[in-house]
Amino acid sequence: MSTGMSTGMSTAMSTGxxxxxxxxxAPSAYPRSSRYHxxxxxxxxxxxxxxxxxxxxxxxxxxxxxxxxxxxxxxxxDRADLLAYRYLGSADQWWQIADANPVVDPGELTRTPGRRxxxxxxxxxxxxxxx
Length: 131
Known about the structure:
Shape: elongated
Structural class: alpha+beta
Distance between the termini: 45 Å
Number of helices: 3
Oligomer: single chain
Helix content: 10-25%
Largest sheet: 2 strands, antiparallel
């Protein structure tokens, strides 16, 4: 059964010691704009041999190292996806706002009117704070 997800395993020939020289990494199943792009896929093997692919844990960036684009003061009716569209050009990028403002529940981002939210560049994009 195919899951449609890449397992990150190369089809290059192995040297026999588990190392595949010049292996080309499998393409990501997620677009570059996804928070899951580049996250390795692992496979859990059950005792009966069934295999289940899963994404390894995504480590959140240190918000202090993200370059601030602007700040937003939350108003009644604000939603993270609408703010992402307004400031980042895509509602799908709400997770970048969550990364810059660590919360346990993304709903916390806009729950309290008056809260100041940091709108930042993604991790790894050069800017004033992350060079």
